[in-house]
Amino acid sequence: KEYYVKVVCNKGRGVAVAVLKALESITSFQIQSSNLATVGDTLVLTFTLKVSACEFDKKRPPNLKILLSGAFLKQGFKFKTVIVDRLTKSAHFLPMREDDTLEKLTRQYLKEVVSKHGVQVSIISDRDGRFTSHFWKSLNKALGTRLDMSTAYHPETDAHWPEIIHETTEKIVQIKSRIQAARDRQKSYVDVRLKPLEFRVGDKVMLKVSPWTGVIRFGKREKLNPRYIGPFKILARVGTVAYRIKLAEQLSRVHITLYVSKLKKCMADEPLAIPLDEIQVDDKLNFIEEPVEIMDREVKRLKQSRILIVKVHWNSRRGPEFTWERKDQMQKKYPHLSQILRWWKITRHEL
What we know:
Layout: E1 2-9, H1 13-24, E2 30-39, E3 42-50, H2 53-59, E4 65-67, E5 79-84, E6 91-96, H3 102-117, E7 122-125, H4 134-143, E8 146-149, H5 161-193, E9 204-212, E10 227-238, E11 242-246, E12 257-259, E13 263-265, E14 280-281, E15 286-288, E16 291-301, E17 306-314, E18 321-326, H6 327-333, H7 338-341
Parallel strand pairs: 7-8, 9-15
Antiparallel strand pairs: 1-3, 1-4, 2-3, 5-6, 9-10, 9-13, 10-11, 11-12, 14-15, 16-17, 17-18
C-alpha cells in the first residue's frame, strides 16, 4: 500500500524535525519526494511515502495532523497528477490509472482543488493530451482560469526538473575541471620561463620606483615605464620573498625591508645607475615629479559645463614632458603656482 500524505505542522520547525525523526524509525518507510514551505506562521511539509497504514498509524507523533484530502491508497494506479501551488509550494497528488478518462480527472480536480482552494487564476500545465483537449480548455474558460502550456522556461511541469539538475551538476563539475586544467597548463608555461629571483648578502641591487605626478590627469594616463635607482647593498634575507637593504639618507622614509619584486640585480656597469640627486621618492617608492611652468591653457567644453585646463611642463627624468591638467586641481595641489594660475580664467567669449 502506498500513501500520498500531506503533513501540516502548526508549531514551528521543531515539530517538523520531530516528525522526520519519528518517520525514520519506520523500517519500511521510503520518501519519494518532499517539499518544505512557510505559509505565514505555518510550516507546511509535503512528501510522498510508501508505508503500511497500520505501521504508520502506530509510529506517527500524536501532534501530527494528516489531511486525508491528499491521502490516497494506490491500488492499480500507475500515474499521479501533481498540482503544485506556485506561492506556497504545497502539492496535491491525484492518483490516476492508465485508462482513466478526462471526466474523472475533472471530477478529482474540482473535488480536491477547486472545492478547497477556490477557482485558480491561472494554471501552467504540461502538454499532455488531457490538458490540450478542447474540453479542458473550455472548462477552464468557463471557470475563468487562464490556461497556459509549459515552455522551456517551465521544464519542471514536464517532469524534467530532476534531469536538468543532474545535467547542470555534471556541467558544473566539467567546467571546474576544465578551468583547473587551463590554470595548471598556464602555470606550467609561466614556471618554465619565470625563474625564482634570489640574492645573497652583500649583492648590489637596483630599487624599482614608479613615476607619479601627484594629480589626477584629465583624460587617460600615458603609459609609464618603470625606473630603478641605486645600487644598494643587501644586508640580510627576511623570510623567502623579502630582503633588508641599506638605503641612502635621501630614502629615510622608505622601509628597509622590501619585497623581491621591488628589486633588480645590479650589473657591474656603474654608469647605468641612476643617482639620487634631485630625485624625490615618497614612502611608497613613487617617483614624484614637480611642475616647472605653465605653458598654455584651454577650455574643455562639456555638455553643461566648461573646465579650464592648463598645459604643464614637468621635471621628468625621462626628458621634457607636457600634460594637460585641470586648473583647480593644480592650484590646490601646488599653492606656489597660485599667482600664475589665478590670471588664467575663462573669458566670456569662451563660454
